[in-house]
Amino acid sequence: MAGVSQTTVSLVLNGTGSRQRRVGEEVANRVLRAIEVTGYAANPVAQSLAGGRSSIVGVYTYEPVFPASAGNFYHPFLEGMETEAQRLGIDLLLFTSMGEGETGLVSGTRLRRLQVADGCVLLGRHSRPEDLDELLRQDFPFAFVGRRAAHRGTVPFAAAAYADATEAVVRRLLDLGHRRVALVNGFTGHESVEDRARGYRRAMASAGRQPVTFDLGDNPVGDLVDALLASDMTAAVVSADLAAPLRLAALDRGLEVPGDLSIARLGDPETPEPVPVDWTGFLIPRREMGVRALQIVMGQLTPGDDTELQTYIPCTVVDGTTVAPPQPAAGRR
Amino acid sequence: MAGVSQTTVSLVLNGTGSRQRRVGEEVANRVLRAIEVTGYAANPVAQSLAGGRSSIVGVYTYEPVFPASAGNFYHPFLEGMETEAQRLGIDLLLFTSMGEGETGLVSGTRLRRLQVADGCVLLGRHSRPEDLDELLRQDFPFAFVGRRAAHRGTVPFAAAAYADATEAVVRRLLDLGHRRVALVNGFTGHESVEDRARGYRRAMASAGRQPVTFDLGDNPVGDLVDALLASDMTAAVVSADLAAPLRLAALDRGLEVPGDLSIARLGDPETPEPVPVDWTGFLIPRREMGVRALQIVMGQLTPGDDTELQTYIPCTVVDGTTVAPPQPAAGRR
DNA sequence: CTGAAAGCGCTTACAG
DNA sequence: CTGAAAGCGCTTACAG
Question: What sign results for the dihedral spanned by CA atoms B47, A92, B141, B78?
Fold first, then answer.
């Protein structure tokens, strides 16, 4: 013992907040020295129970994190989170115990178990709005990786700036002389799809062009190519996973890419494409999204912090060889 | 309330052990119903503090888990652990906060933070013996992925059965007619290398052949090929990472594989080889090692459990095209 | 500036 | 078979 009370030790360790009470410098040093000698470290479990911080942030995923099948969807996000967690001196608690029978975060013991952590990062393509509502209602610090909307309230998130990136890509096509540029979606009803569509419309509107959207639906990709040509499209901006199949379908029909049809890819797919293509388009800043999501959670734990709750992270636009100026109409087959 | 005390609820939830006290069936049902209605779930933090279980198992790695650089070394192990964790209804706490300055588990607050978890799985090529000693001394439930030895005491582990697998591969070469089969190590001083060497020696001894081991050291791989030929070796069993370079060096010297030299690979490397080769050798059961490590930890938490503390998991031996019967000496260049 | 005391939500001997 | 009470190791009002 350094001759002080438990209270004082706690105060020394937990630092000095704004108008918090300070411990005498001399006493503080005495405590610090004793800590060094004894190798004392606070029991995080007790800290947590007593209302303090556990320095643990939960990671809740709506799908298994390490499935051989799903490739490495979560990998880059986790890499960012791990790096940031290390920097911040916190640990990550993986909530993997959501089994087949579970129905999300709200049900059962899941939400309760979250409380071990100071906050939580959520990831997953298929989130459940009721989970977000509940988290918001409980005032539990969290952040989603990717933009998510809730029925009411502000969902904190670290999202890719899909709108801006798509706008930039479409503008590039327009600048090359394309007049008929289509947006092609693989699926709909997701925030990321909406964001891309917004950027697309913005670019088209500012150039006075008519926006036209094609949805894949359940049809074969080949039909999509036919539809694009039937509409006299000279360029298409395509969601990440659909770009490669669309290009192959076009080549299959004897078209040249970008000669007959320019294709820009709106994001890089989770799994690397079997045949590498030098795409024009943009990349999703997955790693940085992970970093930022963690920062947003931690920001909510720090009173004076001014970290934005909803942040958009710029995507890197890349110039490849799948986009070229449109051919004169005569040249098209 | 169901009209019972906190004690009773706790008893109902924590199940009935061996000679533990039982709660009246009628009362238990009443409690269960109330739990269902209210959606009650015990606070794991409090459970943990009170000496109960937190249903959290820590994962401590000696290198970052999600580095883009290191490929996916940990991925298959984690996949197994995640699957098993899900099955067991527990969560995984990633101890990622070991930064640059940290010096292992024992130092600083790391060991203390482990206590949030009921037990811990350790992974990493460069473990620290003092960590194992300390964990053993504290009687903290843990398991290593891969065989590890400590100064004293039994280190629980889930290891690949390298010795058996190597023995099987070498025996296969001997059965094909090879008389001079070399063991080639990329590095030394690791348990996994020792295990392979043991299997190699066993197979050679039982066939009455002289075991010869070549260590790469800091020399170029080409020298190794020369040394193998100078010693009239017709086959080599090679550690996972060295197999591909050795084969290339042999091809470079105008040799044929397996014509002039049979090469068997002792394990599959962490990162897929750039040029796929149809190797003869064995595969490391990484996924299953993760599963078993978790089972070993959980076994220590269950009084009557008879899970082996040290388990070896069989490797899959595969027949490829890098091994063939030895050529008559005349045919060798 | 410092300490005694209550309380976080459980589990577990200990009495009935 | 059941409950009152202590205690896990902290934090944080509340008094001095």
Answer: positive
Single-letter amino acid, residue A309: L
CB A199 within 8 A of CB A165: yes
In sequence order, the β-bridge partners of residue B317 are: B282
Question: How far is A57 from chain B, CA to nearest CA, in Å?
Answer: 10
List of domains in chain A: 6-41 (no CATH), 56-160+287-315 (3.40.50.2300), 162-283+317-331 (3.40.50.2300)
All residues at 6 or more sequence positions from B173 whose CB lies less than 8 Å from its CB, including other chains: B181, B235, B237, B262, B264, B323
Q: What are phi and psi of A213, to 5 degrees?
A: -115, 135
- Whole-structure pTM value: 0.85
Host H or E run for residue A115: none
Does the distance separating the beta carbons of B72 and A45 come in below 8 Å?
no
Question: What residues form DSSP beta bridges with A263?
Answer: A236
H or E element, residue A321: none
pLDDT in tens for each of the 333 residues of chain B?
Answer: 577 878 888 887 776 544 456 677 788 888 888 887 877 777 778 888 887 788 889 998 888 777 655 567 788 898 899 889 988 888 898 887 555 555 666 665 667 778 788 899 999 887 888 888 888 888 889 999 999 988 888 999 999 999 999 999 999 999 999 999 999 998 888 899 999 999 999 999 999 999 999 998 888 999 999 999 999 999 999 999 899 999 999 999 999 989 999 999 999 987 778 788 999 999 999 999 999 999 999 999 887 788 899 999 999 999 999 999 998 754 444
Q: Chain C bases under 7 Å from protein CB?
A: 1-5, 7-14
Alpha carbons B142 and B119: distance in angstroms, whole number: 5
Nucleotides of D under 7 A from a protein CB: 1-5, 7-14
CA–CA distance, B180 with B153 (Å, rounded to integer): 39
